[in-house]
Amino acid sequence: MAKKPDYQRMKPIWYFVGLILAAMGSVINLTGIIDLIRGGGGDKVLGSLHASIWWGELMAIAGLLFIYFNRKAAPANKSAANAAKKKNA
Amino acid sequence: MPSIGLGFSDWVIIALYFGFILGIGFYLKRYTRSEDDFFLAGRRNSAWVAGLAFLSANLGALELLGMTGNTFKYGMYVAHFYWIGAIPAMLFLGIYMMPFYYSSRIKSVPGYLKLRFDEKTRVLNGISFGVMTLLVSGINLYAMALVLHTFVGWDWNVSMWASAVTVAVYVTMSGLLSAIFTEIIQFFLIWFGLFLVSVLGIVEIGGLNEVMGRIPEAFSKLWSTSGDPSLNGMAVTWGGIVMGLGFVLSFGYWTTDFLVVQRAFSAKNLHAARMTPILASFFKMAVPFLVIVAGLVALALSRDPSSGFQLMSDGGKVNYDSALPMLIARYFPPGLVGLGITALLAGFMAGQAGNISAFNTVWTYDIYKSVINRKASPKHLLWMGRAATIVGIGVSILTAYWAKSMPTIMDTMQAIFSWVNAPLFATMLLGMFVKWITPNGAFWGLIAGMGSSIFMYLGVKFNFISTRLITLSGQSSDMAANFWRAWWAWLICFLATILISLFTEKKPDKELVGLVKGLTRGTGEEAVPWFKKPGFYAILSLIVLVVLNILFW
């Protein structure tokens, strides 16, 4: 029988959502800023709105919030941990 | 067809996504030791996690390229797939059917058929579901290759293999657990990656009313043109929409297709399982603001020669599925192009992972353990699940080439659903709510329903049955024919099951406890306050549905 994994240490899915949004948002935001400095974006329709700057920023902020609020184990795993503690006691 | 080049930052975004999902697969492998972990994600998920995964499992190729392309082709009527064609069925699953499914602790939908009827009905459904899933998986793979071919100029073969191998790696490592994780990541990437397309489209044209004003009336209404098929883009009547799509196809898919229902099985308790499709219904109603609006924007732009917008064509034939990629190319600067493509890829790959994780479960439990090796140990079944993942991916690559020759993605998908899901819904409905339905009635009814659907499909395809006979109308599209074929297949299965049950031996009541209404105790949620009950949220969802339909009548 395989050893049971320690589910209490598993990061919640929302934490990973935060990581990928923050990483991608930062890259998009940075690209938008570089594009603006270089005077690019004119070849796209509505390029003057520089959507990558504000959209990237929005993604990065959303990602950081997800990371902050989910940096610990998932609630479901916490209750499992509490149940295990009670059982041991 | 010219390809659209990607910048360095676009490649970084795409690489981040591939690296991330493979990393998650590796991370979750340490938490995937048992059968329950691999096939049911450990049954530890909250309603939110299961609900978003439930929705995202369906948000693959069909939803993105196919639906945007179909909106261009058929107009606003495609929104019926998201509203009347989804919400009532999702709520019915959560309120009425989930207690039977979840409480019987089954691992798959065919597993319910075994408990309620017998082994032969389970195996029949297991095999047909397996075949259907691999066909759908192939269509998904085709859509993935289309995106890579369109934007990056990759070879079709390389595109299919690259995407398929990535999915195979992470699903083989951690099964449904990694499939659910990537589905939820996909949900956020799709919203962040594609919502901006609709927003920028509306800004360019000058508002949603202006978009509607630029397209023909037949394409901009939801119900008011459904009295006569010649008045709407889909060439279908309200009867076809309500009975074919809203009742049979929708209920057949959302309440019996194991691909989506499996996500609810991963919930931590019955309350969370019931809330899974109900929560998902709210998000489902929002999806048209991504794909339908994008399709209408593409249609409006294409009618204005000064916009310079047109769909790609392949050998002189318009490629409707290129509508969304062409809008991304029109609006998105570097970085965002990468995000848009990643959102599409995420949709396809998560859809692919969903199909494969459902297939490996049904193969392992409902075919392999049920027919080939009844004494298989849990460890062996875990190994078999991983092997089935790899084989399933290989078979779906082959089916992708078949999908490529069909006119549009969505039409193909609907044809397949009407073969399998539509009659199965009749079997499930009778099985759960009528206790005197017999195992032989269910089995032969299912055979009659599935056989009639395939016969009608082939009859129309090879011109020995007139479409008029099926659709009861002189004018109809492929889509309308699918709706009506589903309805007839359901009706034939329903009537045949009842008729045969009248003359065959039924199961004793004691074997049906917990599986049939009338022989099952309550859900145990009687003491829960009204504002926490699934029924309350289902009513809220219905109210939103009615309001949306009136708004776009």
Textual characterization of the structure:
The complex is a heterodimer of chains A (89) and B (553). The longest helix of chain A is centred in the N-terminal third of the chain and has 26 residues, at 13-38. Chain A is rod-shaped and about 60 Å long. Helices cover 66% and strands 0% of the residues of chain A. In chain A, helix 1 (13-38) packs antiparallel against helix 2 (51-69). Chain A has 89 residues and is mainly alpha-helical. The mean pLDDT of chain A is 80. Chain A has 3 helices and no strands. Chain A has a domain at 12-73. Chain A starts with 12 loop residues before the first helix and ends with a helix. With 553 residues, chain B is mostly helical. Chain B has a single domain (8-551), classed as Sodium/glucose cotransporter. Helices cover 72% and strands 1% of the residues of chain B. Chain B has 22 helices and 2 strands. Chain B has helices at 8-29, 35-40, 47-56, 62-74, 87-103, 109-116, 119-152, 156-205, 208-214, 217-220, 238-256, 258-265, 270-286, 288-302, 323-331, 336-372, 378-404, 409-433, 439-461, 467-471, 478-503, 534-551, and strands at residues 313-314, 317-318. Chain B has a two-stranded antiparallel sheet with strand order 1-2. In chain B, helix 8 (156-205) packs across helix 15. Chain B is globular and about 70 Å long. The mean pLDDT of chain B is 86. The A-B interface holds A 2-5, 7, 10-11, 13, 16-17, 19-21, 23-24, 27-28, 30-32, 35, 40-41, 44-47, 49-52, 55-56, 58-59, 62, 75-77, 80 and B 7, 9, 12-13, 16-17, 20, 24, 27-28, 30-34, 37, 42, 44-46, 49, 180-181, 184-185, 188-189, 192, 196, 200, 203-204, 268, 330-336, 338-339, 342, 379.
